[in-house]
Design goal:
Layout lengths: L1 E8 L12 H13 L5 E5 L8 H12 L3 E4 L3 H10 L15 E4 L4 E10 L9 E9 L5 E8 L12 H23 L3 E7 L7 H6 L4 E3 H5 L7 E6 L3 E8 L4 E3 L2 E3 L7 E7 L3
Parallel strand pairs: 1-2, 7-8
Antiparallel strand pairs: 1-14, 2-4, 3-4, 5-6, 6-7, 8-10, 9-10, 11-14, 12-13
């Protein structure tokens, strides 16, 4: 029995040159995700004042019947941050509202869910969310985490590689601790835009123990920042790839996001 999981930063804000307006991309994204065949999906940057992503996924996507959404919301944080840090208008500061997990209700029963803010940074409001499922096809317990790690900003909104490094160090340690304490020997799919390539100290730190990203497991040399961590003792990787699907309109092809979705298919090992 296999499980296929996607991690996708959907660029949920407006104003990026060369990209379609959010509302148009959302409409096409609805069709794309419904037809994707994924069992589990972790989305990042699905939260801004530019578009009601949570309403979209809860009301429109769930209405289609293919997926249900696990959302965490903190719209107040946008208002507070936009007031405290005027250079960053609403929709430009990432927070917990940008994280959404989608799952197929025909296969998975949601048992628990929650979220936790990292202690790393106040400005960027970085979180991880998690969900615990029962896989009704196999009887397995499946954990999923979804996250978006810090970029190189300090607490004054200034570019700072040193601050970014400090933030990601804490985030890696806190997320790994959650896996060790909560996941145990269950199946794990840990999606995210980690803002760190697999050869960096932060991914290497998170990968201590049995939970490792696909690229390290497979020894991939191409570097990127979108990862899915797995419990290496419980699954074997059948396939993994970035998808380069595009929105096709009369004026040509358009990307859904500045990230391409990353997908892994695994086979559950016999206990």
């Amino acid at each position: 029995m296999t499980i296929t999981c996607m991690s996708f930063n959907i660029l949920g804000v407006e104003g990026y040159e060369g990209y379609l307006p959010v509302e148009i991309r959302a409409q096409h994204l609805q069709t794309y995700l419904n037809a994707s065949g994924m069992d589990l999906i972790g989305l990042q940057e699905a939260g801004s004042h530019d578009y009601d992503w949570q309403g979209f996924f809860i009301q429109r996507l769930e209405r289609d019947g293919v997926y249900k959404a696990v959302c965490i919301g903190n719209e107040k944080a946008y208002d507070e941050q936009a007031t405290r840090y005027p250079p960053y208008p609403p929709g430009r500061v990432s927070n917990s509202a940008g994280l959404i997990i989608l799952y197929k209700p025909e296969r998975f029963e949601l048992l628990e869910s929650g979220s936790q803010r990292y202690t790393s940074t106040e400005l960027q409001e970085r979180h991880y969310q998690w969900a615990k499922f029962m896989d009704t096809y196999t009887g397995e317990t499946v954990f999923m985490t979804n996250t978006h790690w810090s970029i190189n900003w300090d607490e004054n909104g200034k570019v700072s590689p040193e601050a970014g490094a400090s933030h990601r160090t804490k985030e890696a340690n806190e997320l790994r601790t959650f896996w060790e304490e909560k996941v145990g020997d269950s199946l794990l799919f840990a999606t995210g835009d980690y803002n760190a390539r697999q050869n960096t100290e932060w991914i290497q730190s998170a990968a201590k123990g049995i939970y490792k990203p696909v690229d390290i497991i497979m020894g991939n040399e191409e570097l990127h920042i979108d990862h899915i961590f797995l419990n290496t003792e419980r699954v074997e990787i059948v396939d993994h790839k970035f998808l380069n699907d595009r929105i096709v309109l009369d004026d040509g092809e358009h990307r859904y996001s500045d990230h391409d979705p990353f997908v892994v298919t695994v086979k559950i090992k016999d206990n």
